[in-house]
């Protein structure tokens, strides 16, 4: 970081003052006059638009980027509200970083923020601990049925499946570590997804489409949906297709699934998530990754089930049957009399 960097952040007031200086003006009144300015910072659309615009802009992510320095210091301040505000910009941060890292541009500012988030995720999980799940062993008899064969004296052990490998400490981002580091950051974002505003989730779904490099049938036309960032030559920077190994693909799909099937009332978010799920599915079929194909295909089918209206049951046939049964009952009673 440069020597003329802003002073470190120790409180919420320091963070707000530093961000106002970086953005070149006072923060909106909806943030400055709020009872809890940091909480208002998380969902304020004007601040979000200004920060995401800076992150997507030409030259962002360099080692002397003051906004990256603010994100780094704000997250390391250990103020929970500030950490949520930083996580809100993870989709844009990771999206722009992965698209530019393919061209091997120097992105020390982005990498410093990602490493700070990765270190926090590793500390939360514990050193050298993987996320696992225990699966039932079919060799053991079912507790709900009588066994035809007498059970063995010692039951078979449960099978343990590794969901995510241990997070080893890393001080630098190399090409071989990039997917694991960004994937761990996305898992951290996924853990706080319920607190994220709608625009943050929309940004992530849009970048998923760019990462996949494929087009959904929902597009209708071959067009760029993400707002392009101007590059140094005055043209438009195109967000490009990136490598998607499973350690990056898995958390991305989890976030898309939450946006699609989670408790949200936004039809626009569900449409974007369905588009992202289909693009990830076509990308998985290209790489012939069985895990990715099965997961994305299931999610696409679930999205189609959500979109299809559930037909209301018709009771006309039942009413006719009841009338016929009543007539038969009356005839039987009359014949007995």
Distance between the termini: 102 Å
Instruction: Provide the helix percentage.
Output: 55-70%
Give the strand line-up of the largest sheet: 1-2
Please tally the β strands and state the result.
Answer: 4
Q: Strand share of the residues? A: under 5%
SSE class: mainly alpha
Largest sheet, described in full? 2 strands, antiparallel
Radius of gyration, in Å, reads: 27 Å
Counted up, domains total 2
Q: Which whole number gives the mean pLDDT?
A: 80
Query: What is the general shape?
Result: extended
Poorly predicted spans: 221-235
Number of helices: 14
What order do the SSEs take from the amino end to the carboxyl end, as H and E?
Answer: HHHHHHHHEEHHEEHHHH
Can you describe what's shown?
- The structure is a single chain.
- The chain has 337 residues and is mostly helical.
- It has 2 domains: 1-126, no CATH class; 197-309, no CATH class.
- It has 14 helices and 4 strands.
- A two-stranded antiparallel ribbon has the order 1-2. Strands 3-4 form a two-stranded antiparallel ribbon.
- It is found in: Cell membrane; Cytoplasm, Cytosol.
Write the layout of secondary structure elements.
Blueprint: H1 12-23, H2 29-32, H3 37-43, H4 45-56, H5 66-76, H6 80-87, H7 90-101, H8 108-125, E1 131-135, E2 159-164, H9 178-191, H10 198-212, E3 229-230, E4 236-237, H11 246-261, H12 267-287, H13 290-307, H14 316-336
Antiparallel strand pairs: 1-2, 3-4
Helix pairs in contact: 1-5, 3-6, 5-6, 5-8, 7-10, 8-9, 9-11, 10-11, 10-12, 11-12, 11-13, 12-13
């Amino acid at each position: 970081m440069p020597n003329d960097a802003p002073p470190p952040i120790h409180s919420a007031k320091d963070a707000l003052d530093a961000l106002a200086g970086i953005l070149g003006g006072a923060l909106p009144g909806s943030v400055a006059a709020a009872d809890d300015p940091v909480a208002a910072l998380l969902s304020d659309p004007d601040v979000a638009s200004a920060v995401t615009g800076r992150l997507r802009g030409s030259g962002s992510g360099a080692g002397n980027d003051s906004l990256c320095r603010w994100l780094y210091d704000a997250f390391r301040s250990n103020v929970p509200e500030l950490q949520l505000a930083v996580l809100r910009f993870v989709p844009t941060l990771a999206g722009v970083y992965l698209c530019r890292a393919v061209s091997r541009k120097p992105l020390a500012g982005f990498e410093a923020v990602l490493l700070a988030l990765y270190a926090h995720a590793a500390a939360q999980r514990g050193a050298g601990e993987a996320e696992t799940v225990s699966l039932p062993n079919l060799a053991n008899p079912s507790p709900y049925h009588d066994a035809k064969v007498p059970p063995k004296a010692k039951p078979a052990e449960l099978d343990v499946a590794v969901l995510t490998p241990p997070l080893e400490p890393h001080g630098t981002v190399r090409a071989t570590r990039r997917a694991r580091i960004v994937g761990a950051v996305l898992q951290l974002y996924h853990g706080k997804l319920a607190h994220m505003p709608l625009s943050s989730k929309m940004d992530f779904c849009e970048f998923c489409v760019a990462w996949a490099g494929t087009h959904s049938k929902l597009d209708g036309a071959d067009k760029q949906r993400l707002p392009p960032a101007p590059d140094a030559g005055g043209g438009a920077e195109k967000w490009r297709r990136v490598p998607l190994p499973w350690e990056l693909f898995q958390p991305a799909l989890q976030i898309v699934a939450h946006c699609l099937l989670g408790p949200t009332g936004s039809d626009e978010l569900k449409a974007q998530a369905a588009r992202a799920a289909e693009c990830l599915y076509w990308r998985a079929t290209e790489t012939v990754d069985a895990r990715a194909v099965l997961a994305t295909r299931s999610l696409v089918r679930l999205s189609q089930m959500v979109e299809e209206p559930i037909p209301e049951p018709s009771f006309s046939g039942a009413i006719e049957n009841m009338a016929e049964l009543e007539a038969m009952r009356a005839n039987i009673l009359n014949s007995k009399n």
